[in-house]
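Narrative of activities, Objective 1.

The group set out to show that a structural description can be obtained from nothing but a protein's sequence at a throughput compatible with the screening campaign. Below is one input-output pair from the validation batch, recorded exactly as produced.
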Amino acid sequence: MTTIIGDTAGMIAGMSPELMAGAFDFCTLNADDPRLVKLIPLARAVFQEAEGTSLILPVNVMKAEGFAETAPMAQITLNVFSSLEGVGLTAAVAQALAAQNIACNMVAAFHHDHAFVPLDRAEDAMAVLRKLAAE
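Output recorded for this entry:
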């Protein structure tokens, strides 16, 4: 059985960051855009906002669909089963990365949290997160 961790120190210590393969980018489409049906299954994340549907897609999919590249990102998965009610993991990760001038877009999912960082800073971000977990 999976142990869900909710205390801040436990989530940070157990986060075991993993750099996922691939490059990703963010885009948005209007709700009536026919491409949504095809793109949603290919997306890492989908979120409905007032301005449109935001998707995180593989860069190769973005290019194939004619989207302009905005900010290619690497995905770092924090391999800790963090509680949806846990407090502090996102803040600690964002603060540690910000201290090294690394942009971070966090996505919290049911099982894990994911940090999307600039592709060219992925290894730097991994070093920062490993150090944070070890402290």
